[in-house]
Design goal:
With about 210 residues, the protein is mainly beta. Helix content is about 10%, strand content about 40%.
Length: about 210
């Protein structure tokens, strides 16, 4: 089977991660600087979401880090490597305050569904211009707690609160589909594998941070 890249970007570039707790709620940021590892809780999560970097496929989270088999939207999904791999998504986001590019990656059903909702709202907006325009400023407004037959889950609600020019750092992490001539004759398009959810109306909005 043809191998697929394990990371967003060219040459296996490493990005610090954003972790959304799809079971209990909450969000954390990796503070790994190349030598020291740590996590920082984010109370008010606002970021630029660049869905031109979106990849979908199979992910297994292990003690050694995530094992990913991901492709750009439009490419055929790779074969599932193992029963432990779950369908998931990955997108590069840009945090304010000089924190820069991070990788948001998840297999949690509620998180994937919420990301799909904001993705659909993004690509339908005139500002997006097929990925060549601006990128949305997205705020996580709340978590909706649910009980399922598989246990509790916390579904994040994302809201587009503005639009911003794409920082050049995000441009480096675009997910480019393979040329169509290289595609196999029988394939299925990559999907996020979730059911679209409509977020509820939010309350008063906090100020939009400066991403300059």
């Amino acid at each position: 089977m043809m191998g697929f890249g394990l990371n967003i970007g060219k040459g296996g570039d490493f990005l610090p991660s954003i972790r959304i707790n799809g079971k209990d709620g909450g969000i954390e940021r990796s503070t790994w600087d190349g030598t020291n590892r740590g996590l920082e809780v984010i109370e008010d999560f606002v970021a630029l979401f660049d869905f031109a970097t979106l990849k979908v496929g199979w992910i297994e989270f292990t003690d050694r880090g995530p094992d990913k088999r991901l492709v750009a939207i439009g490419d055929p999904l790779p074969d599932r490597p193992s029963e432990k791999h779950k369908q998931g998504v990955q997108v590069a986001v840009y945090l304010p305050g000089g924190l820069g590019c991070h990788e948001l990656c998840s297999t949690a059903i509620g998180v994937v569904a919420a990301l799909e909702t904001v993705y659909m709202n993004t690509v339908a907006a005139p500002e997006w211009d097929n990925g060549n325009g601006q990128v949305p400023v997205v705020r996580l407004t709340e978590f909706i707690k649910e009980k399922t037959r598989h246990g509790n889950r916390a579904v994040p609600v994302f809201e587009i609160i503005g639009w911003n020019d794409r920082p050049k750092e995000l441009e480096e992490h675009r997910a480019v589909p393979r040329p169509r001539a290289a595609m196999p004759s029988v394939s299925r398009p990559a999907e996020t594998g979730s059911t679209q959810m409509t977020p509820p109306a939010s309350g008063a909005r906090a100020p939009v941070p400066d991403f300059g």
